[in-house]
Amino acid sequence: MRKIGKYITTHDAKHTLYAYVESVCQKYNKQEVWYRTTEFVTPEINVLEGVDAIFEEKHYILGMRGVRRGLKFKETFKEELRLISDLSTKYSNLNILIPYIKDPDELKEVISLLNDLNYKGKYGIMLEIPSVYLLLKEFSELNVSNITIGINDLTMLTLGTFRGSEYHDPTHPAILKIIRDTACFGKESGIEVNVAGYISDKLMRIIENEELDHIILHYKDIPDLLALPETDFPETELLKQIKNKTKQAIEERQ
User: Fold this and answer.
1) Within its chain, how far is the Cα of 93 from the centroid?
2) Has this prediction a pTM greater than 0.90?
């Protein structure tokens, strides 16, 4: 959507998203595919064609993002969920991951929407807000199959800091305790537990020894962390261009 500059309400965005997710499901047909629902912050959405509502947020990182926006604008959210639900009837390896969720009540609302749309896959949650860590048992009772720890937001919200701050330390003992406790809970409950985000070499060395199911690396970080040639990752430049395009559009609007 950032690449084409259009929101999920438009025909072009729906068509592009459907084709993209289908291609991933086909390519990795012997593996599980987890689709994380859109995780825009408001300045990013405000510059997309077809935006359903424009509003300003001073502290948008802590504002209406992820599932919060989805449940605020349910008709738009259902357009996205309908695409994934339709694909789930064709591809049994397709599942849904819900970002920036804070409590089981929000998940119950999402499950209700998915049931109405005849969704066939599994569902999981992002652990970015510490309340999820405190309510792991309650989430597990809703048959969550995947808990993916979003290391950057979790660090920010646990330590009271922003990315780039001298206090933003994903290797802080409090963060590592959440990772270890969640991994242990996952093993006991039969729930997949992953860590995702911008992961430093230091954090990678620490968490690769934990009992995690997957460590999900950002595309641009893979060459450095895994000592692979950058030429193996040709879309790194494209991702930079898309990010810069979004930044420029936000600046022009401001």
Assistant:
1) 18
2) yes
